[in-house]
Write a structure and sequence with these properties.
The structure holds two protein chains of two kinds. Helix content of chain A is 34%, strand content 24%. Chain A is an alpha+beta fold. Chain A has one domain. A three-stranded antiparallel sheet of chain A has the order 2-1-3. The longest helix of chain A has 18 residues. Chain B is mainly beta. Chain B has one domain: Cathepsin D, subunit A, domain 1 (Beta Barrel), CATH 2.40.70. Helices cover 8% and strands 49% of the residues of chain B. Classes of the chains: A alpha+beta, B mainly beta. Chains A and B meet through helix 1, helix 2, strand 3 and strand 4 of A and strand 5 and strand 7 of B.
């Protein structure tokens, strides 16, 4: 296993696992929650983005070492942005 | 009830938001096209901004999204602190980082963001506004 993963890679890897877990198990403890990750670990759980941002900044002020994910959201859905004509 | 109104820009509705820079200095004022056709009430993101703005404001990286229509492909998303002082609004908002905003604007305020408020021209066809 590589030991040279960056903090962002570790964060994204954990986020992917949480999203998959939420998809496979709606009873997951994080289902429906906004989860904050810092330095490869879950450090905050909140009911909305604003609350999560406050908690994450308290734990890790450097945003490049943090990551957030909404567990239970289907991130594969294409979201349409109607174009200007 | 607090209301914020802005003159149309290029004959289109806009809202004006304030972004606070991480490293201090003058806050960024951004004119966003108010576009109810951008996303849905449940899109999971509320604004589209130049990715550089998201980074300058210390945006927290979030899981990315896939867009179609005017923007096609996978895009990064950031949690960006957004202020609308006239409404007392100061919250972290999920924001898609895009390489270029629509010409003449600094980004897009999507339906999920506009839908937080009562929105419209409030009987003045030359303006667009938000009301809490």
């Amino acid at each position: 296993m590589s030991t040279s993963k960056t903090v962002q890679e570790l964060n994204r890897e954990l986020a992917r696992k949480l999203v998959a877990e939420g998809r496979n198990n709606p009873q997951s403890v994080y289902a429906g929650k906004f989860v904050g990750i810092a330095n490869g670990q879950v450090v905050a759980v909140a009911d909305n983005w604003d609350e999560l941002a406050r908690r994450l900044r308290q734990v890790e002020p450097d945003p490049s070492k943090t990551f957030g994910v909404e567990v239970g959201r289907d991130y594969d859905v294409v979201q349409e942005i109607w174009g200007l004509r | 009830m607090p209301r914020a109104q802005w003159p149309l820009l290029h004959d289109r509705p806009i809202i004006q938001v304030i972004l606070v820079l991480v490293q201090g200095g003058q806050p960024l004022v951004r004119n966003l096209l108010a576009d109810t056709g951008a996303g849905t009430a449940q899109s999971g993101f509320e604004l589209l901004l130049d990715e550089q703005d998201c980074l300058l404001c210390g945006g927290i990286p979030l899981q990315g999204v896939v867009l179609g229509g005017a923007y096609v492909g996978s895009y990064p998303v950031y949690l960006v602190q957004v202020r609308i002082p006239m409404l007392g609004f100061d919250q972290a908002v999920p924001t898609v980082g895009i390489p270029a905003a629509p010409a003449g604007f600094d980004g897009i305020a999507c339906f999920q963001f506009l839908n937080r408020f009562t929105y419209g021209n409030f009987a003045d066809p030359g303006q667009f506004g938000l009301e809490i």
